[in-house]
Amino acid sequence: MSQPTEKQKMLAGALYNASSPEIQADQAATRAWLARYNAGLAHAPSAWHRLLQERLAQVGEGAVIRPPFHCDYGFNIGVGAGVFLNFNCVILDVVEVTIGDLTQIGPGVQILTADHPRNPDERASGLEFGRPVRIGRNVWIGAGAIILPGVCVADDAIIGAGSVVTRDVPAGATVLGNPARLK
Predict the structure, then answer these.
(1) 12: left (phi > 0), else alpha (psi -120 to 50), else beta?
(2) Does 49 participate in catalysis according to the annotation?
(3) What does pTM read for this prediction?
């Protein structure tokens, strides 16, 4: 049995080396796609939708991501129908990010799956890993919020503007602050 590639390790959430040629090629392709996508600010949302379908894993009907938008790969991102991401959202998608139908995300929100070893020697080696982020249906995430690796935000939750979400958020809950706490 052959050893998994660095990309296979990355997608599995295992420690991987981001400087591998395959991963670097994927990042270069995404940067080229992002240049095209972000240059289209003056275009209609229907043009944005077509471009999103070129790179993202899933793009639901009526989903809108306003440029500028930034991500690592794109192919690990799935957005449901009617999802809206406002200007300047960042998704570090080294592993899967799913965003459920009708979720509204304010400007400047960061959704982060990339993580690093806690052991300083491992961290110094340059290895990293990812933990998936799942955002449910009909969630509202306020401007400037940060969703950390491995977090699950359940259906109908609200994340206050500027909050740093470090742990799972239950269905229908409102959280705010740094770290985000139940209101």
Answers:
(1) alpha
(2) no
(3) 0.96
